[in-house]
Amino acid sequence: IYAWKVSDEMLQQKRDLESCYFAAQTMRTKIQLSFHELPPESHSSLRDSLLEHISQINEHTNTIIVTQLSVALADLALQMTSWQKPVVDVINRFGGNASSFWPLLEIMTVLPEEAMSRPL
C-alpha cells in the first residue's frame, strides 16, 4: 500500500518528467498486477485520485504521462466491480471541457485495448 501512496504523492508534486513518469508507471503497474492487494474500501479513493490527476492534464503534460495515467484508469475500470458505469462517468467528467478532450480520447482509446489484452 505504501507504493500506492508514494506514487500518488509524487504525481501531486509534479517535480519533473522522470518522477511523474515513474509515479504514473508505478500506479499503472500496481493496478495491473497488484490490485487484489488493495483493500476494497480503498478502491473509490484510488479511482478519485486518478481522475483528479487526469483532470490536471494540460498542453504542457508529456504524452507518456497521459498514456500511463489513462492505462491505469482503464485497468482500474476493468477490475473495479463496484464502479458501475466507468465510461459514462469518464465522459461526464471530461467531455464538457475542450481542454479535457485529449485525456478523454486517450482513455477511450486504451480502454478497449486493455479489455482485449486482459484474461477474462
From TrEMBL:
One of its GO terms (molecular function) is small GTPase binding. InterPro entries: ARM-like, ARM-type_fold, Exportin-1/Importin-b-like, Importin-beta_N, Importin_beta-like_NTR. It comes from the Eukaryota. Residues 63-116 form the Exportin-1/Importin-beta-like domain. It holds the Pfam family Xpo1. GO terms for biological process: protein import into nucleus. Residues 4-55 form the Importin N-terminal domain. GO terms for cellular component: cytoplasm. PANTHER family: TRANSPORTIN 3 AND IMPORTIN 13, TRANSPORTIN-3. This is Exportin-1/Importin-beta-like domain-containing protein. It comes from Bracon brevicornis.
